[in-house]
Description:
disordered C terminus, 371 residues, FAD/NAD(P)-binding domain
Amino acid sequence: xxxxxxxIVGAGPAGLAAAIEAxxxxxxEVLVVDLNIKPxxxxxxxxxxxxxxxxHRSGTRGIDIGNxxxxxxxxxxxxxxxxxxxxxxxxxxxxSIEKGLDSGExxxxxxxxxxxxxxxxxxxxxxxxxxxxxxGIMGAGAAQTMINVNKVKPGxxxxxxxxGNVGLIxxxxxxxxxxxxxxxxxxxxxxxGYGVHASKIRRAGVPIYTSHTIIxxxxxxxxxxxxxxxxxxxWQPIPGTEKVLEADVVTLAAGLKPISDLVRLxxxxxxxxxxxxxxxxxxxxxxxSTQPGIYVVGDTTGVEEANTALxxxxxxxxxxxxxxxxxxxxxxxxxxxxxxxxxDGLRMGPFxxxxxxxxxxxxxxxxxxxx
Length: 371
């Protein structure tokens, strides 16, 4: 059995940030494992510039941040296994990894880890309506991967369901890729994302139907028509308000939920929090879960955005390095206090109070886990 000081599951922003901070502190054996063929996670789909402060790389594109993280990881000697899946997480922090998923030479490797950091991210929610399984109907994230990573158009005429930031940003990026976005459809009575993103869509002439939903998709080999209808105050379709839209793609931007397979497999204590996407693992201010030596970061702890994931990853990386004896307590405290100040700042704003209260409900009040 191989031994590693830290095994990190997920090579997105949270996982990479955790690995970099731990390696910077002197941890020698930091391994990051990811299912995809390339590390970086969602960052390499984000060709738009980040908002926020200079501390969070305002004005920098996600893809550039991803490249910076990969360069730092290489600089500090972080080991990254891609095309590999964690298939088991057992007592005493034994991690089972299936390597080389697409190579034809799959190998099962068991690793004894002193610390494990779960940065498994989130998955897209689906919306069910008549015909929702037709080819051409996909998550907005899938469409974004196709155009920004694989350089392939998902189709020509797109109906986007959902007007949060994901729906708005991906709609604009689909137009940049040469797709015709026929309409955005939003069940709520108002747009859910930032006005600056919605304005770009409207200036391009794309209609946004609020208080509407998709009631049916039609087609043979793939979707060819989408029927939408207006909703009443009880969120029910109003007869006679149906509209037919010609489309060969429907993208669903209906929110995300934390990926919790390993969290449940290892029986980490969880709590339900609707603001953050559903069932999420409890953790302390070091991002350590109710199981000693296992940390949870990023969308695993509740869906937010990339900057928050980066900060939570940094926090866990510092805490794990401190626990392993690579950082003095006083030095670690300074680093963690600085990270928490930035985290709290990210959660403030127009809806900050609600998110702060929600996150405080996830922070577990339990004794510091034995190191």
